[in-house]
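Troubleshooting: if your tokenizer reports a length mismatch, compare your output against this known-good record of 219 residues.
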Amino acid sequence: MGEYAITPRNRVRRLPDKALYGTAEVHAVLDAGLVAHVGFAHEGRPVVMPMLYGRDGGRLLLHGAGKARIARVLGEGAPACATVTLLDGIVVARSAFNSSMNYRSAVVFGTARLVEDEDERLLALRAISEHVLPGRWQELRAPTGPELRMTAVIELAIESASAKVASGPPDDAAEDYAIPIWAGVVPIATALGRPEGDGRVLPGVALSPAVAALEGRRL
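Known-good structure output:
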């Protein structure tokens, strides 16, 4: 699938041996996550906002409120950065210095634009819905006009990106292995639980296939 060119913008400087620049590796992290933290500058100050998203090829589609500041600022074509992080374990070493985390992360850079065409926005909203709730879009009623007007979709074309993956046991200093202290990894398993009805489901209405399939999904 190719790689993102390594530039000063996306080069991983800390622990570069854990860096991955392949599009497949970056996209795999993006596809596994549910929330992206999107950074941009506004009135000379840094701002970072958590946002639901979906991926369509080489672009992120961000979901926000139509009147939100981020929709206004990014809709004007501002440069932005988005990060997705998944924690897989706490690495418990024999020293605080060597204790760390096992994780998968991706950082993407690009130029944002507001998706204004109604047909394109519907496709983008479907992509976001399918990312979070695969198969659910076709089970739902269609969005109404007022709902669409209240919702903003921001496209962030991925111009540059990198992924970083850390895994495995602690890497202690050679002399520390003689210390009688337990060391290892405490796994972090993020999984979706059993769906709970809202108390107003009509009699005889069963759990839908799309929602039932979510139970046990690992991130």
